């Protein structure tokens, strides 16, 4: 048996223990981003031939921008404005539009560059890495554009953070995270940005990273309901009823994404132990039974997993063996456990 790992063909006899453990579920693993300081959070186009993702370019801007790549050729182009922060890009199901969140309208975006670069230099000198903190930038709004980045226009204009958006399968709705009422809640709006309505109601908590189920009836998301920053996976009906928690991990569970069968999700999780940096791996869960299977075993970080539209491929953000200077995107053929 041979497996592709980061472009190299490996026989099972050449694999490390963690590669052998993963080989039951992941075949032909390959790295698909190379030309960035770091890259991640990628999503497939509806036909599975392209990906949209965030990445840090080499240059003065230390924050992510949005790129679209053709998987066959590896050619890519930036589709976001190139200034400020961006995140959470997604293809509309017909492939004719994309959405992403951006703070490029912040008049003081360069001051944020300077602050980030200063912090990185302090980290380099001290050898200490900061605790990961997500910036809920008040200038972040959701924008729509053509897949080449043209005809950019805002879909949200409310005061405060609006980001983490994803389309429903029919393309008529977007679920997203908003701070418009003072809390970080989930909202649903029409695909043109009209008719926003609140989905969750958990004041003082973070609710984010939402995705519609393939049939549009449920939304999976992450939330820190019990303890600040200790995220768990939740699911809620798209009419706001029936919310329930899916994970109970002594640490953090986040970045859930639906398998096309509508029965399973894949997510990222790690235990948080005092004095140790957590190591994140990918887990598959049956949403209705709660049955879980660990998918990755690498010594590096494996996060932000997504399935291709046909469910045959898995893409995620990783440092694989832990020695990469910055995370990159990887893709593998996916084997469903038990098949």
Structure description:
With 339 residues, the protein is mainly beta. Among the domains are: 1-30, no CATH class; 38-154, 6 Propeller (Neuraminidase). It has two helices and 26 strands. The strands form seven sheets. It has a four-stranded antiparallel sheet with strand order 3-26-25-24, with no helix packed on it. The chain has a four-stranded antiparallel sheet with strand order 4-5-6-7, with no helix packed on it. The longest helix has 18 residues, at 109-126. The protein is globular, with a radius of gyration of 19 Å. The two termini are 18 Å apart. Residues 1-9 have low confidence and may be disordered.
List the helices and strands and how they pair.
Elements (H helix, E strand, L loop, with lengths): L1 E4 L2 E4 L5 H6 L3 E6 L6 E7 L5 E7 L8 E6 L5 E3 L7 E6 L6 E5 L6 H18 L14 E5 L7 E2 L7 E6 L5 E6 L6 E6 L6 E2 L8 E6 L5 E6 L8 E6 L6 E2 L5 E8 L5 E8 L9 E6 L5 E3 L7 E6 L5 E6 L9 E7 L5
Antiparallel strand pairs: 1-2, 3-26, 4-5, 5-6, 6-7, 8-9, 9-10, 10-11, 12-13, 13-14, 14-15, 16-17, 17-18, 18-19, 20-21, 21-22, 22-23, 24-25, 25-26
Largest beta sheet, briefly? 4 strands, antiparallel
Q: Using only CA atoms, what is the Rg?
A: 19 Å
What are the secondary-structure elements, in order, as H or E?
EEHEEEEEEEHEEEEEEEEEEEEEEEEE
**Amount of beta strand:** 35-45%
Q: How would you describe the shape?
A: globular
Report the helical percentage: under 10%
What is the third-level CATH name, the topology of the domain at 38-154? Neuraminidase
CATH class of the domain at 38-154: Mainly Beta
Structural class: mainly beta
Q: How far from one another are the termini?
A: 18 Å
Low-confidence stretches: 1-9
- The count of β-strands is 26
